[in-house]
Design brief:
Layout (H helix, E strand, L loop, with lengths): L5 H6 L36 E2 L10 H7 L2 E18 L4 E17 L7 E9 L7 E2 L10 E8 L6 E3 L5 E5 L2 E4 L6 H6 L4 H12 L19 H4 L30
Parallel strand pairs: 1-5
Antiparallel strand pairs: 2-3, 2-6, 3-4, 6-7, 6-8, 8-9
Length: 256
């Protein structure tokens, strides 16, 4: 299946985090009685999108040092979130609001409550679901490690990049980093309690020399910020469990 990259690529460059909020009801079609019709949304992602990212972590020390906040948490809820973009800027996207119950604070989380809302993508303007890179959609009951930063609205959180989640899969951690990448290899074989111990050891003042934070790159502006990520021409797999056969609640668009 060929994957379209242009719209999302603009949203995960340095200067193109969620830039504007669109009232969700405005995009709904009207029902016969004049009340807003429920929007169509796929119940699972059926596309994998790619784009340029701010960071490319090679090691746990880089990921940990660069991440403002690190928590262990459990997913307790998922619901449609805010929308961003417009037809003029390449289309409207809708995020998913993932509620995390924090079970352990490993770095800097000082929230007033033990729950936080993490934003992930998402749906396009037609309700077609997609995931970004290797970050499969969150599901209620997921547990793992989340390396986070605040979103532009100051109310939600987001993964530092698509490498920044490690889920507990039967006692072993599965990184959201690209399989076969240096970071994925570095995290392979960790059990949750082992990674929590390693993180605390690395953050201890006596050991912080092992941390190697990555610097923020120069912000991209002008035409370069609007250009799509290069298309390698490769065919991308559909997400695990997806049918890609039009059986979702929203008819899936042609993948040609």
């Amino acid at each position: 299946m060929r994957v379209s990259k242009a719209s999302l690529a603009r949203r995960i460059t340095v200067c193109a985090a969620v830039a504007g909020i669109v009232v969700g009801a405005a995009a709904w079609s009207g029902a016969a009685d004049g009340s807003p019709a429920a929007p169509h949304r796929d119940v699972q992602a059926e596309r994998i999108l790619h784009g340029r990212e701010v960071f490319d972590f090679k090691s746990l020390s880089e990921l940990l040092a660069t991440s403002p906040v690190v928590v262990q948490a459990k997913v307790t809820g998922v619901q449609p979130g805010r929308t961003s973009g417009s037809e003029e800027t390449g289309g409207v996207e809708q995020a998913r609001d993932v509620t995390l119950q924090v079970t352990d604070t490993l770095k800097n989380y000082q929230g007033a409550t033990t729950t936080l809302v993490m934003e992930e993508y998402g749906w396009d303007a037609d309700g077609n679901g997609y995931q970004v890179e290797n970050v499969a959609w969150s599901n209620v009951g997921d547990t793992g490690f989340y390396f986070l930063r605040k979103t532009d609205d100051g109310q939600r959180w987001r993964l530092v990049n698509t490498q920044s989640r490690a889920l507990d899969k039967g006692g072993w951690l599965q990184s959201s980093a690209e399989p076969g990448s240096e970071l994925a290899a570095a995290l392979t074989g960790y059990q949750p309690d082992e990674l929590a111990f390693q993180i605390r050891w690395m953050l201890d003042k006596k050991n912080q020399q092992v941390l190697t934070p990555l610097a923020e790159p120069t912000e991209v502006t002008g035409p370069a910020a609007e250009s799509p990520a290069p298309d390698s021409g490769a065919e991308e797999p559909i997400p695990d469990g997806s049918t890609d056969d039009g059986s979702e609640p929203t008819p899936y668009p042609s993948s040609s």
